[in-house]
Amino acid sequence: MIESRLVEHRPRRKWLRRLRQRSAVAMILSVRKGELHILMIKRAEREGDPWSGHMAFPGGRMDPDDRHGYAVALRETEEEIGIHLAESATCIGRLSEIRTRPRRGLLSMFITPFVFRLEKEVHFRPNHEVAEVVWVPLEFLLDTDQRETMSWQRKRLRMTLPCYIYNGRRIWGLSLMMLDELMDLVEGPNPQRRTWRRG
């Protein structure tokens, strides 16, 4: 069902993306013990990294040698967790591009999420950027009773944002925006599952 909906899905694309820095991530789905899971990573704690310690998806910035976002998702996944998606998974679709918030005078960046279905068992080899690899049950994320809120502050701006806490790990922000779009495709839009969205 999710695959047919991804085929029909028309993800939003940002018209400025070709003029800005771009990145891509891999959202990897796998049935484990009869239940659909999605792979996430916890980023290593690194000074100066704005996403230090966050839950995220494998991915990163586009290099000059990368032909497109899909190539970025493949390369970064191999570099970060050591698996070759071209050999072990099938890309079943993509989600809408997300624009990041500019930091320290830099222009915003556009992130493209690609969705993969894992076809076989793999062994992870996380690099220094990844603290751990975590399989999160999609059923957990679809349960709106599991949804919580958190306080986020930058300088004078304070916001209350949605999040999930899965086994002590907080899932929020850009990753949650991507998950919400995926979950809307799985079971349809849900007014209780609305993420703070940036244009």
From TrEMBL:
Annotated InterPro entries: CoAse (IPR045121), NUDIX_hydrolase-like_dom_sf (IPR015797), NUDIX_hydrolase_dom (IPR000086)
Record's protein name: CoA pyrophosphatase
Source organism of this protein record: Parahaliea maris
GO MF entries: coenzyme A diphosphatase activity
Nudix hydrolase domain span: 20-161
Origin superkingdom: Bacteria
Pfam families: NUDIX (PF00293)
